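The methods section describes the discrete structure representation at length, but only in general terms. What matters is that the chain and its backbone geometry are given together, residue for residue. For illustration, here is how one protein appears when written out as sequence plus structure tokens:
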Amino acid sequence: IDIRTNTLKNTPAVLLETLEQEGAQARISKVVPDAIELMHVDHAVTDQPSFQMGKFYIQNRASQLAAYIAQPQPGELIMDLCCGIGGKSTHLAEKSQDQATIFAVDSYAHKLQLLLENCARLGLHSIHTICADIAKGLPDYIEKADRVILDAPCSGWGVLNRRADIRWRQDAKQLGDLKKIKKTLFHQAAAFVKPGGMLLYITCTLRTEENEANVWTFLQEHPEFQTESFTDAISFFPLSEEDRKMAREGMLTILPGIYGTDGMFYTKLRKEA
């Protein structure tokens, strides 16, 4: 199990020592700076005293890359769309020293409640929740955000290792509907980005139809956006030469079989000033 150090409360080295004192077997990740890999615990991870004190968050290493690629800064207005229970939202808050204004948006109120509970546990105050369907728009936020993160609903083919049920619950119609939903959400997300701002599009699938093809269509319809390199932002991650070239061009697919993580897709886009 991968966990993410809450760097506002401790360092990976201090957290590792704490976990070992609690009886866990763990090691600091060699590929993501604040990540720790848990090999063994005697009970549920959420029962660890260090978890309950907000010293870490459970999050796969591939997913942790999002905040590094986004590069949030103190004082910025940031929108995290389809935020779920807040894995990326809370990491964005930590990376901006809890000094940005982060609007976490999701259409499911129970997920936002869990996000607020995570914020309380982690000691974060910069996240504000909005329960809304972004497909219908949020007119008050048009061109207001310095950074927008869209973790779009997807087929989830990158996480089949721990969501085996996915392979039995999808059909061609569902996959087609997902493509349409993504296009709508992508278009709405773009509207929130202010001139000169950044849009980070993320999925946890490996399907070209939901990833590269969707981005190419978006760029044709939104010429004010261009892809932006993010190799420097994740220089610590051991990308293959081919993948490093892709990241330089603003798109990257993390394949589980190569990196031993979840499968993820990232595209970083910049809106012209």
